[in-house]
Amino acid sequence: MSSNLETSAFIELILSAYGGLPRWSKVRHIEVTLTLSGLLLDLKGHPGHFTPTILIDILTPRATIQRLSRNSPDERWVYTPSKCWIERSDGKILSSLDNPRASFNGMTRESKLSDLQLCYFVGYAMWNYLVFPWVLARPEFGITELAVHEEMGERWRVLEVTWPEGVPAHNRVQQFYFGEDGLLRKFDYFADVFQSAASHYVLDHKDFGGVVIPTLRRVVRRDQETGKVGWFGRSSFLLDYLEVKILDE
């Protein structure tokens, strides 16, 4: 285990590896076009490959998603923590869901998702993926360094991060694994909305206007008791970023 000073220095290394706080402070939105597929989408009633474009507001949990609908590519799906809705390009709201997190109560890994529930899941997940690791600099996020982890021939330092109330995430306490270069290798969590444990590997970091973002993500199932990862099974989710736009204030 490292001291608080050592952990603070390591967090500074992480933020520097991703472009540094001075650069991040100028960012207002991030827009990503990606391919999205995986076993869990099939199980949840949304099979196949999607190519959505997702715009997030980095200051508050909000995402606007296009082309995630099979019914109409012109629909916009909007995620906020308290409400999700689907609207036409002219702004007319077609359907909405208040308190979307509560709609997942009682669901299992195999339960089907409505379009609005899928909007909530993709929205909060992508928001968290794109604002990390910058949330490590925010005082409302709790951080504890755990013992070093060895995997793939490397020694990874591990930060356990606790999300504040009111910021939706897979679950409140997650473990993040970093290489000596400060770049994220994977993170572990239990997806409350699916009642399923996962390991999420991040790959192919690229620089976009001074902000470094991993452009390939693979999520695999993890045994909650043993920690064994289903690396050679089918991906629960596979995200391949095709285009990334960093939009400054």
Can you tell me about this structure?
This protein has 249 residues and is α+β, with helices and mostly antiparallel strands. Helix content is 16%, strand content 42%. It has four helices and 13 strands. It has helices at residues 4-17, 21-24, 39-43, 115-131, and strands at residues 27-37, 53-57, 63-66, 76-79, 83-87, 93-98, 142-151, 154-162, 173-178, 184-191, 196-208, 211-221, 237-248. It has a 13-stranded antiparallel β-sheet. Strand 10 and strand 11 (196-208) form a beta hairpin. The longest helix has 17 residues, at 115-131. It is globular and about 50 Å long.
Instruction: State the total count of DSSP E strands.
Output: 13
User: Which bin fits the share of residues in helices?
Assistant: 10-25%
- Taken from the alpha-carbon principal axes, the silhouette is globular
CA radius of gyration: 18 Å
Q: What structural class should be given to the helix and strand makeup?
A: alpha+beta
* Strand order in the sheet with the most strands: 6-5-4-3-2-1-13-12-11-10-9-8-7
Tell me what portion of residues adopts beta-strand conformation.
Answer: 35-45%
Question: What is the first-to-last residue Cα distance?
Answer: 39 Å
Mean pLDDT: 94
Indicate the low-confidence ranges by residue numbers: none
The main sheet comes to: 13 strands, antiparallel
Order of helices and strands: HHEHEEEEEHEEEEEEE
The helix count comes to: 4
